[in-house]
Amino acid sequence: MARPKGSKNKKTVDINVNYDEQISKVSAEIDELNKALKAKKAELKSLNKAKADADKIAAKAKAEEDKKAIIAAVEASGKSVDEILEFLK
Predict the structure, then answer these.
(1) CA dihedral 9, 10, 15, 16 (to 10 degrees)
(2) Residue 17: its pLDDT value, please?
(3) Mapping DSSP to helix (H, G, I), strand (E, B) and coil, where does residue 55 land?
(4) Dihedral sign of CA atoms 74, 75, 77, 82 in order
(5) Which pLDDT score is estimated for 70?
């Protein structure tokens, strides 16, 4: 026997389910997830700030190392700083 057109697409509704309870449960889960998201965002912000501070300190340390290396190279060359500055111009 042929099936009527569209009959397999009909949705059934269970009238015995308490939809209000399910909606409140899902809403509570969403609230929990939003709180967790806010906490993670705050943690990420503090980690990014700490990383930026560490990068600044590392850059200063590298600049000091480079400065010391340049000074050592100047002293090893036997030329004065003025002669090297004139050479660089």
Answers:
(1) -40
(2) 75
(3) helix
(4) positive
(5) 83
Q: What percent of the chain has pLDDT over 90?
A: 48
> How many angstroms separate the CA atoms of 31 and 62, rounded?
46
CA triplet 72, 73, 74: central angle to 5 degrees?
90
The Cα-based distances of 66 to 54, 56, 71, 72, 75 in angstroms read 18, 15, 9, 10, 14
- Distances in whole angstroms, Cα of residue 35 to Cα of each of 22, 29, 40: 20, 10, 9
Amino acid at 13: V
User: What is the mean pLDDT of the segment spanning 53-66?
Assistant: 94
- Give dist(CA 44, CA 30) in Å, integer: 21
Among 15-29, 34-48, 58-72, 74-88, the minimum mean pLDDT is found in 74-88
